[in-house]
Amino acid sequence: MPQAHPATTSLVAALDAIRAETDGRIDITLYPDSQLGSELSMQSQLRSGAIAFTLTSASSLQTLAPVAGIPGLAYAFADYPPLWAALDEGPLSERIRDALGAFGLRSFRIVDNGFRDVITSLRPVETVADLHGLKIRVPPSPLLTSLFRSLGASPVTINLAETYAALQTRIADGMENSLPQIEATKVYEVQKYLSRTGHSWDGLWILAHGKTWDALPGDARGVISRHFDAAVTRQRQDFVAMNTQAEARLRARGLSVATPDRAPFRAALAASGYYADWKARFGAEAWRALERHTGPLGA
């Protein structure tokens, strides 16, 4: 994440607290802004043990453990209470954590990266038809790629660190992300229209290399876990506050803001077979675990 993202600032505070509490015995160095590579590269480095921890999006983890992407299903969650209930404990959380554990990864609580909106340079997105033909930058997520293809757009996968340049040079016509991420990456400097589509939620799992984690003394694991948990709680609060104020700040920076009716977008996805397809891919048990918190999807 960029340095200004609340996930980064909360983790910086946590690592400082860990160093202070242990008199420097535990020293974890943070590399923000994709300094160690793309998300997929860092996932590979984590699995090999080349890095001890990483913060990576649920959407990109879907390429490794498919069920990890299920919280980002389009219009599944409308608000935070059912989302955190699903991901902090219970069958859906257990299913995702077990899937990541099968790849030797130890998962902590998930960080908020928000409900995602569309920002473009060519036109506002007020109806489904406005997406047709637009090249929209997405992370390496099959779920988000499928979502935009189902709505008639042309999704293109671009590393986050390269997105600003891609938008500036019109390799992509727009991107989709949360408002704090749009602010942190400063893409508002090269885009014109913000559309509050709220089409998907994404979070960031804090993950550890399992063997490295298991080799640490028990007291060290306890200190790290406690401060990581506190960082997630703080980050979720900071993110909501930042997100609440972000639209006004982006308007002040010159963006035109539209708030489309979301029901036609969800209806178009259902008609395209998007929900039926992902129900088949995720499997009936995972789908039931999701619908415990969301209600029926795809109707």
How many E strands?
7
Q: Compute the number of helices.
A: 13
The N- to C-terminal Cα distance equals: 35 Å
The rough form would be described as: globular
Radius of gyration: 19 Å
The structural class is: alpha/beta
Biggest sheet architecture:
7 strands, mixed
Q: Provide the CATH superfamily.
A: Bacterial extracellular solute-binding protein, family 7
Unreliable residue stretches: none
Helices and strands, in order, run as: HHEHHHEEHEHEHEHHEHHH
Mean pLDDT across all amino acids:
95
CATH class, anyone? Answer: Alpha Beta
Strand content: 15-25%
- The CATH architecture comes to 3-Layer(aba) Sandwich
In the CATH hierarchy, the third-tier topology is known as: D-Maltodextrin-Binding Protein, domain 2
Q: Provide the helix percentage.
A: 40-55%
Total number of domains: 1
Overview of the molecule:
Belongs to the bacterial solute-binding protein 7 family. It holds the Pfam family DctP. This is TRAP transporter substrate-binding protein. It is found in: Cell envelope. Keywords: Signal, Transport. The chain has 299 residues and is of the alpha/beta class. It has a single domain, classed as D-Maltodextrin-Binding Protein, domain 2 (3-Layer(aba) Sandwich), CATH 3.40.190.170. Helices cover 48% and strands 18% of the residues. It has 13 helices and 7 strands. Strands 1, 2, 3, 4, 5, 6 and 7 form a 7-stranded mixed sheet that branches. Helix 6 (142-150) links the parallel strand 3 (135-138) and strand 4. Helix 1 (6-21) runs antiparallel to helix 10 (218-252) and helix 4 (80-88) crosses helix 13 (284-294). The relative contact order is 0.19.
